[in-house]
Design brief:
The complex is a heterodimer.
Chain A lengths: L3 E4 L2 E4 L5 E7 L5 E7 L5 E7 L6 E2 L6 E3 L9 E3 L8 E8 L14 E2 L3 E5 L1
Parallel strand pairs in A: 2-11
Antiparallel strand pairs in A: 1-3, 3-8, 4-5, 4-9, 5-6, 7-8, 9-10, 9-11
Chain B lengths: L3 E2 L4 E5 L4 E3 L2 E2 L6 E8 L6 E7 L7 E2 L2 E6 L4 E6 L8 E9 L8 E2 L3 E6 L1
Parallel strand pairs in B: 2-12
Antiparallel strand pairs in B: 1-4, 3-9, 5-6, 5-10, 7-8, 8-9, 10-11, 10-12
The chains are: A mainly beta, B mainly beta.
Chain lengths: 119, 116
């Protein structure tokens, strides 16, 4: 069954540490995204990638880094430079897929999210 | 200026009643797409329905329909015969320009609570 997985579900980090959040998809989508969501608020785009080995900064990229070495994987590293990293992080993907689930190729499908807490 | 506005921070609705969640948008691009997502307390964002700016008919998907009024720049989500499981946050989002633009602009959301 196709979908997007994120791990871990909960993550605790000490101040000054870098942590990496995993995002994997088996939908054969070209584009992948990372969003941050703070309590009671909407989504803000951190980074996105349209193809392998390429990615662009979103609205709040400072303190984060990504890589896109494989089509199915788009890990996000929260660095110690991120001043307030405690938040809910959502990964998404979009594009043509086998099975034709989406109404359009730009429909984004999301993983279950990772809750990051800085201790 | 806000590109996507959801004016209802929260709503209470009786079970089995219809619900309309408001969304207005602002764009000067003739080509755009509008999306609605549901976020239950578990956190996952669930895609509900999509409307393209050139689509002649309002989108429908099961109990969900999109009341698309282009001249008013509104794209309200209608949920018919609400159920307890519809209690969640609902977000409206817009893609401006062509489909090669991958970014979505998100509204602040509406919290819907269905009362038994």
């Amino acid at each position: 069954d196709g979908g997007i997985t994120q791990s871990p579900k909960y993550l605790f980090r000490k101040e000054g540490q870098n942590v990496t959040l995993s995002c994997e998809q088996n939908l054969n989508h070209d584009a992948m995204y990372w969003y941050r969501q703070d309590p009671g608020q909407g989504l803000r785009l951190i980074y996105y990638s349209q193809i392998v080995n390429d990615f662009q900064k979103g609205d709040i990229a400072e303190g984060y880094s990504v890589s896109r070495e494989k089509k199915e994987s788009f890990p996000l590293t929260v660095t110690s430079a991120q001043k307030n990293p405690t938040a809910f992080y959502l990964c998404a993907s979009s594009g043509w897929e086998t099975g034709g689930r989406s109404a359009s190729t730009d429909t984004q499908y999301f993983g279950p999210g990772t809750r990051l807490t800085v201790l | 200026a806000q590109k996507i506005t959801q004016t209802q921070p929260g709503m209470f609705v009786q079970e089995k009643e219809a619900v309309t969640l408001d969304c207005t948008y602002d764009t000067s691009d003739p080509s755009y797409g509008l999306f609605w997502y549901k976020q239950p307390s578990s956190g996952e964002m669930i895609f509900l329905i999509y409307q393209g700016s050139y689509d002649q008919q309002n989108a429908t998907e099961g109990r969900y329909s999109l009341n698309f009024q282009k001249a008013r720049k509104s794209a309200n989500l209608v949920i018919s015969a609400s159920q307890l499981g519809d209690s969640a946050m609902y977000f409206c989002a817009m893609r401006e320009g062509s489909r090669s633009n991958y970014q979505l602009i998100w509204g602040a959301g509406t919290k819907l609570i269905i009362k038994p």
